[in-house]
Every structure is written in structure tokens, then in C-alpha cells.
Amino acid sequence: MSESGKEFGQELTDQINDILSRLQSKELFQSTWDIVAFVVFFTFIGVVLLMALLVLIRCFCCCCDCDSPRSYNKVKTF
After folding, report:
1. Residue 28 CB contacts under 8 Å (≥ 6 apart), including other chains
2. How do the domains of the chain map onto residue ranges?
3. Where are the transmembrane segments (predicted)?
4. Distances from the Cα of 11 to the Cα of 1, 15, 20, 26, angstroms
5. For residue 34, how many other CB atoms are within 10 A of its CB?
6. What CA–CA distance (Å, rounded) separates 37 from 18?
7. Would 34 disulfide with which of 22, 23, 29, 71, CB 3.0-4.6 Å?
8. Taking the alpha carbons of 35, 37, 40, 44 in that order, is the dihedral positive or negative?
9. What's the whole-model pTM score?
10. Burial of 60 by CB count in 10 Å (0-12 exposed, 13-18 middle, 19+ buried)?
11. d(CA 38, CA 40)
12. Using one digit for the tens of pLDDT, what is the confidence trace for 5-64?
């Protein structure tokens, strides 16, 4: 295995050990930046899921009406 692969493996092991030690100590957020990053990440995930939900609602609700012929420019004749 190359040196970079060993370094990557060691870094990954260090990060996993850090996460496990935080879980054991029940101190997931050690600084304000951790909290901010957590909030920004889950806000982003929430917005993406909301947009996907809106696309699905539009697709399933509006596509049913697309099959029926509609006249958007109705002209009234007397």
C-alpha cells in the first residue's frame, strides 16, 4: 500500500475515533461553528427535500389535467 493510502486510512481512523469519543461523552458540538455547520447542513437538506416534494406534487397533481384538452384563450361569442 502506498504512503498516501496509509495516511488516508490513519486520518479516517482518527476521525471515526473522534466521532465515537464525542458520542460517548455526549458532547457532539464542541464549538459554535459546529452548531452553525449542523444548522446550515440540515437547512440545506430540508430545502432540497421540500423542493423535491413540490416537484412531485406538481407532477402528480397537474399532469392529470394535461390529458384533457383545454382552451386557454376562450373567446366568448354572443
Report:
1. 22, 34
2. 32-59
3. 35-57
4. 15, 6, 14, 22
5. 13
6. 17
7. 29
8. negative
9. 0.47
10. exposed
11. 6
12. 788 888 989 988 888 887 777 776 777 888 888 899 999 999 999 999 999 988 888 666
Higher pLDDT residue, 54 or 77? 54
- In the block, residue with C-alpha cell 461523552: 25
Residue 23 exposure: Cα atoms within 13 Å on the Cβ side = 6
Q: Quick one: which of 29, 50, 27, 46 has its CA closest to 38?
A: 29
What residue has cell string 406534487?
A: 57
Query: Over the chain, what HEC string results?
Result: CCHHHHHHHHHHHHHHHHHHHHHHHCCCCCCHHHHHHHHHHHHHHHHHHHHHHHHHHHHHHHHHHHCCCCCCCCCCCC
Grid cell 502506498 is found at 2
